[in-house]
Amino acid sequence: MKNIRFLFPGLLMSIFVLAIWNGADHGRLPDFISALYHFPYGDKVGHFLLIGILTFFVSLPFSFSLWSTTKKRIITILIIISIIITLEEISQNFFPSRSLDVMDLLFSYGGIFSFGGFVLFLSKKGALRREFKN
Q1: Long-range contacts of 68-73 (CB under 8 A, 24+ apart)
Q2: In this structure, what DSSP letter does residue 4 have?
Q3: Who contacts 128 (Cβ-Cβ below 8 Å, separation ≥6)?
Q4: For 16, phi and psi rounded to 5 degrees?
């Protein structure tokens, strides 16, 4: 993979999301995340943006090849992220400080498909290949 430098943002975002999940599982969310709960639907916006940005950065390194290959790779990534997010949401039933919320899951899916769709759009237009050509 020529554009290995694009793996690092996805890796860092994955670590960030895992840290937030760990904090939530133990009832110790960072203050800037807890502040979202003070706004109407703030946690839903948080799910949409957090998982959407994760999806964008994880999908980005796979968007530099030919369109037919790129489309398959990115769709596979979207499915994998969707499965992981679904399992994580279900796992919340097993933590006293968490609760399973279908709306949270739907907003996470919205982030996955919006941000993943944006990467697909950029890839189809060839914008990423032209912009980051080695």
Answers
A1: 70/120, 70/123, 71/120, 71/123, 71/124
A2: G
A3: 60, 63, 64, 119, 122
A4: -60, -45
Residue 75 has pLDDT above 60, yes or no: yes
Query: Who's near 92: CB < 8 A, 6+ residues apart?
Result: 98, 99, 100, 101
Q: How far apart are CA 115 and CA 6, in angstroms?
A: 16
Residue 44 contacts residue 104 (beta carbons within 8 Å): yes
Which residue is it, tokens 């759009």?
Answer: 121
Number of domains in the chain: 1
**What DSSP letter does each residue of 94-127 carry, written as one string?**
G-TT----HHHHHHHHHHHHHHHHHHHHHHHTTH
Per the structure, the complete domain to which residue 104 belongs is given by: 4-131
pLDDT in tens, 36-71: 778 888 889 989 999 999 999 999 888 776 666 778
CB 10 within 8 A of CB 80: no
Spatial contact of 85 and 12, defined as CB atoms under 8 Å apart? no
Report residue 101 as tokens: 């919320």
